[in-house]
Structures are given as structure tokens and as C-alpha cells.
């Protein structure tokens, strides 16, 4: 058995966290093999090592199994020992026996569930997912005490062997969607899955498209609501992000706050988000096109104001807007990567000193700064679409500078036609607007009381359309 321990150590390439202990009992040897970096050393000492150390009689395998004070004890084959050690188990075996005992004492340092910075709410649950998959599963499980919640396990990544769990309601989810998702996941051949985002291009219908096609969430209440609608949640170990499919664009116009406040107020906020989204995408492009090609359609007073503001600027409107947009993007990237106290200082320097000084120096004009600033702020009305909107911003800036309003309108038509052609696991991307689905629009741009939302979404298939049955007396 000593040779077997040496073989295990060699298989681990003499890793510094590989630990093996030998305890002699009544002429026999007891071997303990584990990785000390991912196991609970206190539990190992109190529940495994000490009870065996204090036993003074002849030891056999059945007695060994009884001495271990743990509920997670399994007998494994020799071929499974390597895998069990890598997954946080202590493998115990005797020199006079070919049987092996695996005791799961996996322990990682994990953070406490807290409110995610990107999904804060005024009212409602403040729990957020962590990097520990067991914690994330428990946060979902505690919201479903029914028997129909299914949690399926698989492992991806040849080197990382990352645990991935599918969560869905067996009596609601469409089996064709589930089958297609499993098919795509099983086809994945990759060396490692470090985060949930690694899976997004690998399971998307159009992996090379810039359009977001997989839902992402950091809060269990959001994921729970999506599971209730018939979606499948994909939980990846070491990631605080949970993926959901199918996904439609409307999900990003919604917010968890919408469901914890008055539905009239929620409807107004959704319209505000849509206006913000529109301005963020085409605002700078329209401003450039009006200045370069269509200034005659502007009111005379506004035209005079713009002319007075821009007459000292040495750059064309296109170069000016492009410069300010790039400046804002650089400040954004810097603020993300600097420590929080430096990030705040950088934002103040960028906004006040560079912006104000640039205007006073005549390098940029106040209207251009205002247009770009509003467009960049409006991005955060739909934060989950930030990267896609940023790409479109630059596209429409070039269209406005080269083709004017005709180019901007043509670009809008093309983008709408393109996203309208996308389907995600059978769900039209622009549903419930295209195709128009009346019942789904009850929770679309306008939100109705929950008592009127009696059916699950029809944008994608599910096995149980009815979600609420209000009985009238």
C-alpha cells in the first residue's frame, strides 16, 4: 500500500498540498491520503484521525468505517481514489485490505451572500450568489419546497473538472429545450471552465453575434422567478453568475424592483429605460448628423447657441464626439481597475477638470459634452446590455458622420431586422413585441397587477401555461 501512496503522490506531481499520514495499529498500518488545501483539518483531526488513534483493539475495515464520525462516508474502488482526493475527500485504507473509505470534508473559504453591486433594490431580497456552488444551490432550493425542482449535475473542463448544475421545474420546463441544452453542454470540449461566462458562447445559437443571447443573474430571487416561468438555470461552481435559458431582450428592460413596487410606477420606469436605451444607442449619432447635414431642421435659437459654442472648436463634430466618447470610455475602464478611493478621485478629475478645462480651452464644446454624457449615463438604465450598447454607440456615430440621418435610420432598421431574426432555444429575441403576444405584454413595457398575469410566458414553450388561478366567490 505504501507503493500505492507513492503512486498517488507522483500522479499529483509532488504537489505541496498533497498529504499522506500513516498510523500503526496492532501491527497493521492505517493510511490517510488527502489534499490539505481543500479539506477541513479540524474535522479530519476530530472525526477521523483521533477516533482511530484512540482505538486499541485489532482493526479491520468494518470497524474502521464505524470509527469515522461523519455522515458523508462512502466505500470506493481503487480507481476512484484519485478523483475523491481531488474533490476534497480524505481516503482511509488499511495495509491488509483492498477496500478504501472516502470521507468528504471539503472546505473552501467562501464569502457570505450579500447584495450584488449590479442588482441593488430599494425593497426586496438582498441575497446574492457567491462563488460556492453549494451556497448557490441552497439559495435556490430554499425558495422551492415543492418536489418538482430538479437539480442535475455534470462536470466540464478537462483540467478544471468544474461542477455545473442545471436547475428547473420538472412539471413546467419544456423537455425539448432541456434536451437541446444538455446536448450543447455535452458537446463542449474545453480545457477549463473558470466562470459561467465561459459557457455563454458555447451554448448560444449564434456564438459570433454581438447580441446577448443568454440570461445572466446575480440574485436568487431573479433566478427563482425565471425558473417558475419555465426556464432552465445553469449554476457554475466558482462563479457568482447564474445563466438562464431561454432568454428574450425584454428581460433586461425589467428589474427586480419592478415586482416589489407599485405596478403603475414600474410601468413608468420601464418606459424611461426604453427612452434611455434609445438615446444611449443613437443620441450621439443623431447629434453629429444634425450638425453636419441637417442643421436647417434645428430651431433657429438652438442653432445660434450651438454655433456660438462650437465656432472656436478646431475639430469637426465627428472628431469631437469621437474624442469625448473615447475619453469617457477610458475613464470608465480606469475607474474599474483602480482601487475605490482612487477610482472616485479619477472620476472627479475626468469629469470636472478635463471636461471643464477642455470646454474653456476651446477643444470641445458644451453641447457635445452634454450629449455624450447623457448617452453614457443612459447606458446604465439597462446595465446588462452595456457592452452591446457601447458597440452600437460607435457604429451609429460613424453612420451619423458619414450618411447623416439617413444612415442612422437605415442602421436602426438593420439592427431591428437583425435582432428580430434571432431565436434563443426557440424563443424569439424580441418577443412579446415581435411576434406580438398579447398575454406576455401584461408584463412587457407596461406592467399589470400580478392577479392579471395568470399565464406563464408564451414566447417559449412550457408544459404548464397556468401560473395563477384566482377563484372568485
Outline the structure in words.
By secondary structure, this protein is an alpha+beta fold. The chain is 44% helix and 13% strand. The chain is built from 15 helices and twelve strands. It has helices spanning 2-11, 41-54, 61-67, 81-86, 133-141, 175-187, 200-203, 220-228, 250-253, 263-292, 300-310, 317-337, 340-360, 366-378, 386-420, and strands at residues 18-25, 28-35, 73-76, 89-94, 100-104, 149-156, 162-169, 215-217, 232-236, 242-245, 423-424, 427-428. It has a five-stranded antiparallel beta sheet with strand order 1-2-4-5-3. The chain has a five-stranded antiparallel beta sheet with strand order 6-7-9-10-8, sandwiched between helices. Helix 12 (317-337) packs antiparallel against helix 13 and helix 12 packs across helix 14. The radius of gyration is 29 Å and the shape is elongated.
How are the secondary structure elements laid out?
Layout: H1 2-11, E1 18-25, E2 28-35, H2 41-54, H3 61-67, E3 73-76, H4 81-86, E4 89-94, E5 100-104, H5 133-141, E6 149-156, E7 162-169, H6 175-187, H7 200-203, E8 215-217, H8 220-228, E9 232-236, E10 242-245, H9 250-253, H10 263-292, H11 300-310, H12 317-337, H13 340-360, H14 366-378, H15 386-420, E11 423-424, E12 427-428
Antiparallel strand pairs: 1-2, 2-4, 3-5, 4-5, 6-7, 7-9, 8-10, 9-10, 11-12
Amino acid at each position: 500500500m505504501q507503493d500505492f501512496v507513492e503512486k498517488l503522490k507522483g500522479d499529483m506531481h509532488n504537489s505541496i498540498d498533497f498529504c499522506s499520514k500513516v498510523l500503526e495499529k496492532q501491527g497493521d498500518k492505517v493510511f490517510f491520503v488527502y489534499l490539505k488545501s481543500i479539506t477541513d483539518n479540524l474535522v479530519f483531526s476530530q472525526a477521523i484521525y483521533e477516533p482511530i488513534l484512540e482505538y486499541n483493539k485489532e482493526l479491520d475495515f468494518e470497524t474502521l468505517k464505524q470509527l469515522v464520525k461523519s455522515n458523508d462516508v462512502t466505500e470506493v474502488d481503487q480507481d476512484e481514489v484519485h478523483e475523491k482526493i481531488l474533490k476534497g475527500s480524505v481516503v482511509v485504507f488499511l495495509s491488509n485490505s483492498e477496500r478504501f473509505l472516502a470521507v468528504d470534508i471539503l472546505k473552501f473559504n467562501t464569502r457570505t451572500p450579500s447584495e450584488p453591486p449590479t442588482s441593488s433594490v430599494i425593497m426586496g431580497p438582498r441575497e446574492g450568489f457567491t462563488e460556492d456552488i453549494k451556497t448557490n444551490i441552497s439559495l435556490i432550493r430554499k425558495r422551492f419546497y415543492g418536489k418538482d425542482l430538479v437539480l442535475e449535475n455534470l462536470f466540464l473542463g478537462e483540467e478544471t473538472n468544474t461542477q455545473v448544475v442545471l436547475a428547473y421545474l420538472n412539471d413546467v420546463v419544456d423537455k425539448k429545450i432541456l434536451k437541446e441544452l444538455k446536448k450543447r453542454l455535452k458537446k463542449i470540449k474545453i480545457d477549463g471552465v473558470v466562470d459561467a461566462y465561459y459557457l455563454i458562447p458555447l451554448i448560444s445559437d449564434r456564438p459570433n453575434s454581438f447580441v446577448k443571447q443568454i440570461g445572466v443573474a446575480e440574485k436568487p430571487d431573479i433566478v427563482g422567478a425565471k425558473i417558475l416561468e419555465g426556464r432552465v438555470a445553469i449554476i457554475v461552481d466558482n462563479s457568482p453568475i447564474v445563466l438562464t435559458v431561454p432568454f428574450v431582450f425584454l428581460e433586461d428592460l425589467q428589474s427586480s424592483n419592478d415586482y416589489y413596487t407599485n405596478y403603475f410606477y414600474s410601468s413608468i420606469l420601464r418606459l424611461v429605460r426604453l427612452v434611455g436605451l434609445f438615446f444611449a444607442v443613437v443620441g450621439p449619432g443623431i447629434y453629429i448628423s444634425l450638425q453636419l447635414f441637417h442643421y436647417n431642421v434645428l430651431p433657429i435659437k438652438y442653432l445660434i447657441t450651438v454655433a456660438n459654442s462650437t465656432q472656436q472648436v478646431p475639430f469637426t463634430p465627428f472628431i469631437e464626439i469621437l474624442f469625448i466618447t473615447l475619453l469617457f470610455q477610458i475613464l470608465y475602464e480606469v475607474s474599474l481597475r483602480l482601487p475605490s478611493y482612487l477610482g472616485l478621485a479619477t472620476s472627479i478629475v475626468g469629469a470636472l477638470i478635463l471636461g471643464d478645462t477642455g470646454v474653456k480651452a476651446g477643444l470641445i464644446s458644451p453641447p457635445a459634452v452634454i450629449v455624450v454624457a447623457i448617452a453614457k449615463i443612459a447606458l446604465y438604465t439597462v446595465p446588462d446590455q452595456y457592452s452591446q450598447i457601447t458597440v452600437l454607440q460607435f457604429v451609429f456615430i460613424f453612420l451619423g458622420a458619414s450618411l447623416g440621418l439617413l444612415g442612422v435610420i437605415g442602421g436602426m432598421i438593420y439592427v431591428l431586422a437583425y435582432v428580430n431574426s434571432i431565436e434563443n432555444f426557440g424563443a424569439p429575441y424580441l418577443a412579446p413585441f415581435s411576434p406580438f403576444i398579447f398575454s406576455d405584454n401584461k408584463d412587457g413595457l407596461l406592467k399589470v397587477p400580478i392577479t392579471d398575469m395568470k399565464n406563464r410566458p408564451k414566447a417559449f414553450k412550457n408544459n404548464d401555461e397556468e401560473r395563477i388561478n384566482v377563484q372568485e366567490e
